[in-house]
Amino acid sequence: MRYSGLIEKYRDRLPVTDSTPIISLAEGNTPLIELVNLPKILGHEVKIFAKFEGLNPTGSFKDRGMTMAVTKAVEAGSKAIICASTGNTSAAAAAYAARANIGCFVLIPEGKIALGKLAQAMMHGSTVIQIQGNFDDGMRLVQELANDMPVALVNSVNPYRLQGQKTIAFEVIEALGDAPDYHVLPVGNAGNISAHWMGYSESVRKETEACGLCNGQCPYHPKEPRASKRPIMVGNQAAGSAPFLRGEMVKSPETIATAIRIGHPMSWNLAWAAVRESGGWFNECTDDEILAAQMLLAKHEGVFCEPSSATGFAGLIKDLTAGRIKAGSTIVCTLTGHGLKDPDTAIAQSSQPHLVAADRGAIGELISRFL
Ligand code: F0G
């Protein structure tokens, strides 16, 4: 059957009805890629899987939440949506608004969003408003604006966003047959870690459901794959924007990982609950550690994610090195966005192309130096 998006697939676990007008770009259903080289290179006896959210229609996990948020906005009769964004939310909002034929306003921090994301918001025809402030300023402003103007707020304070984003846990459980031992990911505004936890929590098989007699055929047996446990959740932040590590909000967040350059996360309590209930923890990673992790994934696994996404993997390397993760564990690492979103950062840290004459001999000589 043709895959037509996560609302269709998981409609029994999402707040939609038969008459809800679904706005979808066939998001979700992203690959779970086993890392085959890095565990060996790094010297750890673990299984690591990358859930590559960069392969969503607009190149990030935001599409999971946006299909739900825009669907519900349209159902409620909204003619326009608004969000503050470090880039990916604005790209997704713009695309889904275009699809739904409604207006879209995005507030972005001036000069601090990656080029690919800006291009997306512009191409999809949203009204792009650069503010002389950071994401946290934008977040405060869009909440005020949505209060007294006819625009629906689609940041992750909108509960439908987390509903859509929780489906990542359903997909991981389907692919692995159960929840992993650990799930690691980057944390910014903290909606995504909260949504992961919601998805896992909804998937745990309850004692009363385990009938064990019917081979899944009786009406009491859950139709969808369920998990026997929930993973330990590990949230990773950039050192210059790490309010969870500090235990308090950060006034002027800074990091090269612009997507998570956030000092005042909205889902503060939900994210703490996810980490505490799961027995997990938060890490912080320096910009150098983040870029090194991004490069490792690109060079040794062929997986190109953006710097913010690599923050989860950077934190995982620290935890493995520190012996904080048990040998033999299965770990899923959400890679939240595609590397093509931020070509400037990628090019700045890579070796530059070789410039040679258009000549067989010169090129042959160059190649033989690398063979
Ligand atoms: N990774 C990427 C690539 C992101 O774009 C974001 C958030 C995160 C991780 C963190 O997720 O906020 O749910 O904790 N980007 C938002 C945006 C803030 O505006 O695009 P979170």
What does this structure look like?
This protein is an alpha/beta fold and 371 residues long. 41% of the residues lie in helices and 14% in strands. The protein contains 15 helices and ten strands. A six-stranded mixed beta sheet has the order 1-2-10-7-8-9, sandwiched between helices. Strands 5-4-3-6 form a four-stranded parallel beta sheet. The structure holds ligand F0G. Ligand F0G binds next to helix 4, helix 9 and helix 13.
Supply database-style keywords.
globular, four-stranded parallel sheet, 41% helix, alpha/beta, 14% strand, 15 helices, 10 strands, binds ligand F0G, 371 residues, six-stranded mixed sheet
What share of the residues does DSSP label as strand, in percent? 5-15%
Tell me the major beta sheet: 6 strands, mixed
Contiguous low-pLDDT stretches (5 residues minimum) are: none
Q: Helicity level, as a percent range?
A: 40-55%
Q: Structural class, judged by helices and strands? A: alpha/beta
Overview in brief:
The protein is α/β, with parallel strands linked by helices.
